[in-house]
Structure formats: structure tokens, C-alpha cells
Amino acid sequence: MRLVLAVVLMLVALPAHAVQPDEMLADPALEARAREISKEIRCLVCQNESIDDSNAELARDLRILVRERVASGDSDAAVKQYLVDRYGEFVLLKPTFGGFNLVIWLAGPVLLILGGAVALIYLRRRAPQARPADAPLSAEERAALERVLKDG
Amino acid sequence: MIVEIGHFALTLAFAVALFQMTIPLVGAARGWSDWMRTAAPAALAQFLLTGIAFAALTHAFVVSDFSVRLVATNSHSLKPLLYKVSGTWGNHEGSMLLWMLILTLFGAMVAAFGRDLPLGLKARALSVQAMIGAAFFAFILFTSNPFERLVPPPFDGNDLNPLLQDPGLAFHPPFLYLGYVGLSMSFSFAIAALIEGRVDAAWARWVRPWTLAAWIALTLGIALGSYWAYYELGWGGWWFWDPVENASFMPWLVAAALLHSAIVVEKRSALKTWTILLAIIAFSLSLIGTFIVRSGVLTSVHAFAVDPERGVFILAILAVAIVGSLTLFAWRAPTMKAEGVFRPFSREGALIYNNLMLAVACGVVFTGTLAPLVREFVDGAKISVGAPFFNLAFTPFMVMLFLAMPLGSIMAWKRADFGQVVTRLWWASAAALAVGGIVWGMQSGDAHLAPVGLALGAWMVLGSVVEIIERAGWPRTGLDGFRRLARLPRADWGKWLAHSGLAVTVCGIAAITAWEREDIRLARPGDVIPLGGYELVFEGVASLPLGAPFEVPACGAGQESVLKGGEGRNFTTDLGRFRLMRDGRELAMLCAEKRLYPVQRMPTTEAAIDSTLLRDVYVVLGDKQTQGDAWAVRAYVKPLAAWIWLGAVIMGLGGIVSLSDRRYRVGAAAKARPAGPAVPAE
């Protein structure tokens, strides 16, 4: 219910647009870092939007928070950890590497290995057994073949 | 009255579907041809009845009949006609009815054009099609009746979500549904083949056009949705890895794999069971897409539990369809015998590689999309899987696929010679590397992405170019080469076009990601914003009231042209004007809007885009500051942006050209091979 309420509020309130000029840090290097971090932080009341993209008020608060932490000298990892401590893993658009989340991360490589193995077995089965027909034509055979083709 | 006729027609269509799913199937099992023959007229009747129902609902929307609950909640009398019509499917009930209209349309097309189909296959395929139809008719009639009345009718409606009042989004769902539902046809043919226990070249020739048509529609539908997001959502993002997007992207990936594997079935009589499995998976993913979009399960497992009726119903359909078809597959598939023999290094092998990469990529998207649901179900923890994950985990497989594409598509069937493939492609690879090098040298930044992406794109296009040159016999043949090219099967041209289109999209993605320039600032009228070699002069903002048509001095770009033609505005707008200059010369006048739709009290942004082949200039008007006359302005230069969707259009075009190949022309399967000059075997 809280979520529904938040979504309704978000729709009714006039949105503040994604990153606002007044939020931005004066130091371009710090601002660039803040932007990169923001792209990986989820806007909590939106559907799958990063706070960097979102128009929601809450996203604005988080963007400002990220900039405060960056300006106060936190590393990128520390800023993210700070947000996870406050809002939970939900806030990360890129899931952590470990535990259940390994399933998500390893799905691709594992599927590739399994699928590749099946494909290789299949390919070996379909490959022609060495048969006389596979041997290259002898000179006489080739001449005979050419004769036949010409006549045809 | 018309509404009741619509409801009645829908009920009748349900009854016809029940008939069509049983009688022809029994007929096919017993060999009773007159029972089998009922399938075609039943399919036509189903389509006709669904068409009547859909027309009745559209009519209710057009005349704003607010005594229909659906119209009252989703329409408004002041809405422009286009959006009254598109409002028909801009909601749950109406979109399901559109889904059914397309499903029955495909059935009717098989009935009408499939005269040369073997009677048994046709009866069984149409019967399976009717099973899907019956399930969804029941879903609509019992849980999502679009014809429900509202007593007393309100004075006016609730309006359509303003974000959806857009020509791009008006046509996005019909295309996507054509794609989703088109895959039902491949599914029905796959199930019919499993029942018959036979898959041959003729079967593949029958399935491929339907898959191709579905894939074309999906390609265009996805591109349309992506373009809509690009200009409507206000920051120029074009793909978000949103679950709803992924739901349409997964069937696209599998359909692409299916297209390629069906070629192997047709030409080499191998990969039969895999192709059947792909057809089942493709449609299952379409159903899953419909389920996760329609059931509300996306926001949270809990949202699903709040209104479970619809979700459970679709889940049941999903379970029956997927479990049923996979069981049938497990039971019958082992009876299919593969015949073709080939070496791993061959066209067949390359197509298997293609299928592997597409399937794994689809698996990554699938896990990423559903993992949050599963995780919440398992231990209640809420996690997010978003764009940063997908970009990292999905892209490598696409790169591996694209790298191999020119190699694979030039290989000979059965057995290819590695040395020969390399000799034929060496200059293409050298040229592609040169493109990468030039881009690397020219760009000022240090991003690796653009040179690599553009080199990859060049490699993919040049692969097709090499093939075209070879097939023409150039330079040996001179002008005669053109005659040779004209005689080639259209399927070859389709392949080259589609592969090149993909390359164009890849270039667009690489360039926009690597080279985008952004400027965010507060601007006052008269301010000049420098923007990557351009200058943007902020001319000021005009506030326009509700109702009157636009009377704005020449805007070179912007969305205002949409409502021209005398229809009044159903929104108020702040219209910011920006003069785009380069070296003191005016290039365009850009009009960016901030709209407010009063009925739903919802604001939208309409970005102003000046689009050329090489770059888009993209301007968004933000909020007015509380003090003074400054406005927040966001401006971007997006290099090669148009290529993303241009590529998709070229891909779709390639599909259409391939679809027109005489080999796939409906009925061609049963006739003898086309006469005429023999085409050299590949």
C-alpha cells in the first residue's frame, strides 16, 4: 500500500526533472563520479529507473545525498554501501556478486558452457564418418567427372 | 445496442473456438476428412466474430459511449480522434481483445491461404490455434470483459494516460502483438508436427514465413517503443532493460534463432527437434511476456496477490501451454530423425553457433528479468536487476555473435574450408580494422567503445558486401554481374539487408553511448548554450492555454505538428524555443514543451529534436525557477542516434524482402521447385 501511495504521489506531484542544475557539484570530476554512481542506484518508487534518469522527488533526494557523500570524500564503493545500509539491496541496479545473486551473474557463462557442450556433442554426431567418398578425387576421376559435366 | 452485439459476437467466437479445437483434431486422428475440413471455415468465422467485437468496442470509444465502463475509465470526449481509436487498446481489456483479433487473424490467414497445406497438418495446426484462442476468450469473458456497462454513466471520461497520447505509442502495441501472436502460428505448427511425428523441408517452408512475419512485426514494434521512449520520456534514453521491454525482447531473440534454425531444417533436414523446441519456447516467452505485463506481478509479488484473479488465470493458461507442449515434446521428439550430415566447420555449424549465442543471451535476459521475483519468493529480499547488469552480462554474447556473423554467412554447407573463408574475407576484416583505427584517431576522448563498435558494424556490413561481390562474379563479369544479382533469390537479399540493418543499429548504439554530449544548466531568455560545436540560443518560453490550435512561429522540430489539422489542444503547455546555430548560421528552430494534461493532472515533456543522419540535437525544457525568469534546460548532442532505429527498419525491410521469396510464397511448398535458370547451389 505504501508503494501504491508513493506511485500516486509521484504522478500527482509536478516532477523535478532528472538531474537539476542546482544539484550539480561545482567540481566536474566529482560531479562525473556522482553521475556514474547515480546510474547504478535505483529510484525506489519508480519501475526500474535509475535516480539519474528519474523525475521523482525521492530520486532527487538520493541524488543530493550521493553528491553530499562524494563531496565529503567517500569512495564510490562507500557511497553505495551507505545507500545499501539505509535502503537495502533493492537500491542497487547491479546486483551484488554472491549468494543467491550468483545465479543471476553466472546464468550466462553456465548456459554457454552447457549449451556449448551439447552443441559439440551434436556436431560430432552429425559429422560424417570417414568414408571413401570423402577422399579427394583422383586425376582420372576428375577428368571423367568433367567429361560427364560437359556432356550434360 | 452495438456494445451488446460486440459482447454477443465475442461469446459466439468463444463457442466457435471450442468447436474448432476439438472437431478437426478428432477428425485428423480418425482420418475423417470432412471433420478436418471444418477447421478452415471455423477459423474464418472466429476471425469475423472477433472482428465484430473489436469494431463494436472501437465504435464505443470513437463515439465516447461512457456507459461502457472501459470507455469511461480510459477515454475523454475532448481527446483527438486518433487517440480515441488507439485508446481502444491502451488498456488491459481492450489490449487483450486486440491480442485475440490478431490471433484469429492469423488463424484465418492459414485457413484462407493454406489451400495446399496437407489436410491433417492444417486441421491440427488450426486446432491448436483454437485451443490458445479458447483459453484467451475465456480469460476475456470471465475476468476482463471490455463490454461491461456502467450505471449511471458519468458525464465525461477519465482520459487516456497522456504518455500514451502519442502516435508512436498508438501503433506500438499492435505491432508487438502481431509479433507475439504471430509466434503462436509457429507454435501451432510445431505442436501439429509433434502430433504427426513428422518434420520435413515442406514443414520448415511452412513455418518460416510465419516466424519471419512475426519477427518483422516484433522488430518494428520494439523499435517503435524504443523511439517513443527516446523522444517522450525526456532524457533521450532509448533502452532501459525494463521488464516490460525484456518481455518483448526475449521472444525477438528466440524468433531470430528460430528463423535461422528453420533454414537448416529446410535445406539440410537437420536440427528438427531443436527447431520445434525453439518454436515452443518462442511462443511460451510471448505468453510469459503477456503474463508479466498484464498480471501486475512485476511491481511486486504482493501486487499480484492484491488482484489475483487475472494473474492466476493467465498463469494457468501459461502452465497448461508450456507444461503441455513440453511434455508432448519430450514424448514425441525422440521419434524425429535427423538426416543431414555435416562437419562442425560448415554453414550448419555456424547456424548452430548463432542459435547458441541467441539462446544464451535470451537466457541471461530471462534470469535477470525474473530473478527479483524468484528472490522475493525464496527469502523475501527485494533486489533490483537493471541496465548496469544487463549491459555487462548480455553484451558479450552479442559481440561474439556479431564477430562470427560474416564468417558464418559465407561458409559453405556441409563442410567449409577455413583457409578459404579467411582468404575471402581478409580485405573486409582489414577494412573494418581500418575503420576502427580511423575512428580511434579522430575521436578526442579515450572511449574504446566507439572504435570497437564501429569496426564491428563495418565488419558486419562488409561481410555482406563480400558476398554480394562474389555472387555477382565481380570484377570478372562486369555489367553482367548486375544481371546475376537480379536473378538471386530474394531470401539472399533479405539476409544481406537484415544483417546490414543490424550493423547499422550496432554503430548507432556504439556512437550514442560513447560520444553523447550533455549540458544541464539554468538559462534565461537570450542566453547562449555552447553544445559540442553548436550554439543553442534560448529565445524564451510561451505559455499556451487549453483548446486553441497552435499558432506558434515556425518551429523546425518538435511535437506540435502532431495535433495540426484543426483539432484543439487537450493540454496546456509551456513552449520553449531554441535557435540552433553553427558558425553563426541558423540550422533550426527547436520547440521543447512542458505539457500539463488537466484531466489526469499529469505533466509530460516533449523534447525538441533536430535529427540528421549524423547526429540528433535534443533539447528538453525543465522547470521554471521560483525566482527570476531562469529555466532548467537540458541539451544533448547524440551522434548517430537515428541509426539505432534506421537499422531496425532496414532489418524489417530485409525480413519483408525475404518473405517475398517465391520459395516461401504460400502454396509454393506443395508445388514443384521453380523452373528457370538454375541458381548455383551454396
Description:
Chain A has helices at residues 2-12, 28-38, 57-71, 76-87, 101-126, 139-151. With 152 residues, chain A is mainly α. Chain A has two domains: 2-91, Orthogonal Bundle (Helicase, Ruva Protein, domain 3), CATH 1.10.8; 96-127. In chain A, helix 2 packs across helix 3. Chain A is elongated and about 85 Å long. Chain B has 682 residues and is an alpha+beta fold. In chain B, the strands form two sheets. Chain B has a five-stranded antiparallel beta sheet, with no helix packed on it. A four-stranded antiparallel beta sheet of chain B has the order 1-9-8-7, with helices on one face. The radius of gyration of chain B is 27 Å and the shape is globular. The longest helix of chain B has 33 residues, at 347-379. Chain B contains 20 helices and nine strands. Chain B has helices at residues 2-30, 33-36, 39-62, 69-74, 81-86, 92-113, 119-143, 167-196, 201-232, 243-268, 272-294, 301-306, 308-332, 347-379, 387-410, 418-442, 449-472, 480-487, 490-515, 641-659, and strands at residues 517-523, 528-531, 534-544, 572-582, 585-597, 602-606, 608-611, 615-624, 631-639. Among the domains of chain B are: 408-514 and 643-658, no CATH class; 517-642, no CATH class. In chain B, strand 2 and strand 3 form a beta hairpin. Classes of the chains: A mainly alpha (152), B alpha+beta (682).
